[in-house]
Design a protein that fits this description.
The chain is mainly beta. It is built from three helices and 31 strands. It is elongated.
C-alpha cells in the first residue's frame, strides 16, 4: 500500500500566503549571500597601455598553430578579445593568480573573450567583470579551458554577467581545473554541445553552479559546486537550434551548501533565459526535461530544499510543446550517493514556487527538507498509470528507507496536489515494455 500524505483542502495560494507571512522575515534573515573571491588581483602589476594594445593585436593577428602568451599582470581592457576562425591556437597566461584580464571598462559587446575555431586551448589566467559572459566559445570543435578563473567583483550581483565559462554549439569540450563564481545565471554553462567533460572544477556564488543544457554525452565529475542557489543542473529547453540532449553522467562530485539567494533577473517573457530564475535556493541537483542521466557517487550535502529534483518541463508553467523535444524527464538512474539534509534549523526555500511545493506538500510534513523529489508528471500516452514507471525513473540508493523521498501528484493542477513517500515503483528499474533500464555512456578520461 502506498504511503500517502493527506492534505487539507485549502487553496495553494491561501496556504502559501499564510506561510509566507509567518516565516518570511525569518527566512529573509537566513538568506545566504557570498562575495568570496579566490584571488586578490589588486596587488598585481598593472600592464601598460602598450602591453594591452599588443594583447588585443595578438588575438587579431594570431595564426593557426600559434601560442598567445600573456605575461603576469593586470590587463585593463576596453575592447573584447576575439579569436575568430583559427585552428590549434593556445592562449596561455602565467597562472590564475598572476594573469588577470579585466573588462570592467568594456562598454560595448557582451563577452570579455570570444572564440570561434578548432582545437583551441585557454589556460592559466583569470577573467574579471565582463559586462556579459566571461568567456564564450561558439561553433568550435575542440575547446579546452584549463585552470582559468572567471568572476565578478561587483557589489550588486544582479549586474554581473550571465555565464562565466560558456561553450555553446561546440564539440569535444573540456573544462578542467577551472573556477567560476558570481554569475547571475550559471558559472559553468555548456549549451547545445556534444562530447563534453567538466572535471576538477569549482563553482560557487552563482545562481547555478554547473549547467548542462541540450547537450549530448556529458561527463561531469570531480567537481565542487557549493554556495550557489542550485549546484548542478541538467536541462533540455524548447525552441533552441538543438533539441533534446541525452547521456549525461554526474559522479564523484561534492554538491554542498547550495543555499545562496537566487539573484537571476528575467530576460523578457519567454522561457529561455528565465528558467534558472525558478530554481529555489537550497537545490542540489536539478533535472528538467532531461533524458538519459546517471547520478552516482556524489556527496549531496546540506542543500536546504532538496538534494535531487527530477522534474518535467510542465512545472515551469511555460508552453511545453516544440519540435524535436519532449517536456518529460525520462531514463534517469540515481544510485550510490551520500546525502545529508543538514541542521533541523535549515528550512526549505519559500521564495520560488518549486520551493513552496516542497515546503507545503512534501510527504513528510511542512517545511521538511527532502533528499529526492520527483514531480510525478508522466506521458499518459505511454501508460495510464505512474505505477508502471513509464518514464523509467530508477532510484537505487542503498539507504533509501532512511532518506526523504517525495513523489508529487500534479496532473490536475494546484487545487489537487498530493504527495507520496513510496519509492517502490522506481526501484524496479523497468519500463512498461519490461526492458531493464540501462545507461551505457562510456566513461572518458581526457
Amino acid at each position: 500500500m502506498e504511503n500517502k500524505r493527506t492534505h487539507p483542502h485549502h487553496s495553494f495560494e491561501m496556504i502559501r500566503s499564510l506561510l509566507l507571512l509567518s516565516f518570511g522575515l525569518f527566512l529573509f534573515s537566513c538568506s545566504n549571500q557570498s562575495d568570496e573571491q579566490t584571488y586578490d588581483s589588486s596587488n598585481l602589476r598593472r600592464a601598460t597601455p602598450e602591453e594591452v594594445e599588443a594583447l588585443v593585436e595578438a588575438f587579431i593577428l594570431a595564426e593557426d598553430t600559434s601560442t598567445i602568451r600573456i605575461p603576469e599582470g593586470f590587463y585593463e581592457l576596453k575592447t573584447q578579445l576575439i579569436l575568430d576562425n583559427k585552428t590549434a591556437v593556445r592562449i596561455q597566461g602565467e597562472g590564475m593568480d598572476k594573469t588577470v584580464l579585466s573588462f570592467r571598462e568594456l562598454k560595448s559587446g557582451g563577452e570579455g573573450v570570444k572564440i570561434v575555431g578548432k582545437d583551441i586551448t585557454v589556460e592559466e589566467l583569470s577573467i574579471e567583470n565582463a559586462p556579459g559572459d566571461g568567456i564564450k566559445a561558439q561553433h568550435t570543435d575542440g575547446i579546452t579551458f584549463r585552470k582559468i578563473n572567471v568572476t565578478w567583483t561587483n557589489g550588486d550581483k544582479s549586474k554581473n554577467g550571465t555565464y562565466a565559462i560558456y561553450p555553446v554549439q561546440c564539440k569535444n569540450v573540456v573544462i578542467d581545473g577551472c573556477i567560476a563564481s558570481h554569475s547571475k545565471d550559471a558559472g559553468i554553462y555548456v549549451g547545445q554541445s556534444e562530447d563534453i567533460v567538466v572535471k576538477n572544477s569549482l563553482a560557487f556564488g552563482n545562481v547555478a553552479g554547473i549547467e548542462i543544457e541540450n547537450c549530448d554525452r556529458a561527463e561531469v565529475y570531480g567537481n565542487t559546486a557549493r554556495d550557489n542557489a542550485g549546484g548542478i543542473l541538467v536541462f533540455n529547453l524548447p525552441g533552441l537550434p538543438k533539441g533534446d540532449g541525452r547521456q549525461t553522467r554526474i559522479y564523484d562530485n561534492d554538491i554542498v551548501d547550495n543555499n545562496h539567494e537566487n539573484f537571476a533577473t528575467p530576460l523578457g517573457d519567454g522561457p529561455n533565459g528565465n528558467t534558472v530564475t525558478m530554481i529555489p535556493p537550497g537545490s542540489g541537483i536539478v533535472l528538467l526535461a532531461a533524458k538519459e542521466v546517471e547520478i552516482f557517487n556524489n556527496r549531496i550535502l546540506r542543500n536546504k530544499t532538496y538534494g535531487v529534483a527530477i522534474a518535467s518541463y510542465q512545472v515551469t508553467g511555460f508552453p511545453a510543446e516544440a519540435p524535436n523535444w519532449s517536456p518529460y524527464t525520462s531514463d534517469i538512474y540515481v544510485h550510490d550517493n551520500s546525502y545529508d539534509r543538514g541542521s533541523f534549523l535549515s528550512l526549505p526555500d519559500l521564495s520560488r514556487e518549486l520551493g513552496q511545493l516542497v515546503s507545503l506538500y512534501n510527504a513528510y510534513g511542512w517545511l521538511k527538507t527532502q533528499d529526492i523529489i520527483y514531480d510525478g508528471i508522466w506521458d499518459e500516452s505511454v501508460s495510464a498509470s505512474i505505477e508502471s514507471n513509464p518514464m523509467r525513473i530508477c532510484i537505487q540508493e542503498p539507504n533509501l528507507e532512511s532518506l526523504r523521498f517525495t513523489r508529487f501528484y500534479l496532473m490536475e493542477g494546484e487545487d489537487n496536489i498530493d504527495s507520496f513517500s513510496d519509492a517502490s515503483p522506481f526501484q524496479q528499474c523497468k519500463g512498461p515494455s519490461g526492458d531493464k533500464l540501462s545507461l551505457n555512456s562510456p566513461k572518458r578520461t581526457n
